[in-house]
Design a protein that fits this description.
Blueprint (H helix, E strand, L loop, with lengths): L4 H23 L6 H25 L4 H24 L6 H31 L1
């Protein structure tokens, strides 16, 4: 099956959704410390915002709206990396592995969104 631009767009919608869902699964296993509670709130918001703003970019009202939503999505992916790095995973190696994978995914999403911005800026 040949992929069209619309198919790729929805693949990234799925990927950002899965990122937000994976974050929620990860944080449910973390130790309940005061700092984790605060950082988890920020992480959950940021990861959800990556997906929500990407979806909104695909429904943009114009080029400025599209570019702004992609920029916000990229910013939230970067922010997700920060909150992930700050969390205390305790002494659980499996949680550290999950955190590393989520940081990697946030980094990859940031790069993808940056590439979209770079390509789109030249088209508009």
């Amino acid at each position: 099956m040949t992929k069209t631009p619309n198919t790729r767009r929805y693949d990234l919608e799925d990927r950002t959704f899965e990122f937000a869902r994976s974050i929620r699964s990860f944080v449910s296993a973390l130790p309940r410390t005061l700092s984790n509670c605060e950082d988890v709130r920020q992480l959950v918001r940021a990861s959800g915002s990556v997906a929500a703003n990407y979806i909104e970019a695909n429904e943009a009202l114009g080029k400025k709206d599209f570019l702004m939503r992609i920029k916000i999505s990229r910013k939230e992916a970067k922010e997700s990396q920060l909150w992930l790095r700050l969390l205390n995973a305790g002494e659980k190696p499996e949680l550290e592995q999950q955190r590393t994978a989520l940081i990697q995914e946030a980094s990859e999403l940031t790069k993808i969104l940056s590439a979209i911005l770079n390509k789109s800026a030249g088209e508009f």
